[in-house]
Predict the structure.
Amino acid sequence: MPAFGAYYIRAAKAAFSDERGEDMSRDINALHPELAGICRLFLKRCEENGLRAGIAQTFRTKEEQESLYAMGRTVAGSIVTNARYPLSPHCWGLAFDIYRNDGKGAYNDEGGWFSKCGQIGKAMGLFWGGDFKTFKDKPHFELAKYLPGNSCKDLIDKYKTPSEFIKTWSDTVTQQQFNEMMGNYLAGLDKKAASDWAKDLLSQAVSAGISDGKRPGAWATREEVAVMIQRALSAK
Ligand SMILES: [Zn+2]
């Protein structure tokens, strides 16, 4: 496994409870509903790009954050975080951490695996922990819009505690959120490569002038289908 910073390997160990004796939440539903939706789409998008990711951590309670903070300080082990409760976005349901779930090692970064996931997350409007200036945290993603400057300061000013913030969460998806999610989903289809079973037929359709062969995984409208049928009928 290439060396790429020991921080999240230690954090992962903590997450997988080797050093803590209890599980931290990996439940996507424990996240802010907006992030939960993006997180599910993100995992799907990664999968579509051949990157099978799993969720190592989502929401952290006060006890969990404080016990992580204690590691390497008042408890044996190495330091895994500089954030006390509630200074980590995980405490606000605004961050999740991934691991590599394809059997090649949970934190194996071979082939730039984590950076590839990072690019997918960034394209969906997330902040990627690999872009932290000093404390690179490649498995980490957070919902940037609530965390200006990657800081929980605004949240603390506005809500004081995570539990007050959580009271404002709504499971109702606004039209704007839905449009964003749908837009992300459709943009993902646009980037999908042609399926193996369709490749030959698709290139035949391109040669026959029926399709331009672009965006093979995207949805077609009825007018596009009508045009393709008409082209096929007039093809000799
Ligand atoms: Zn994290």
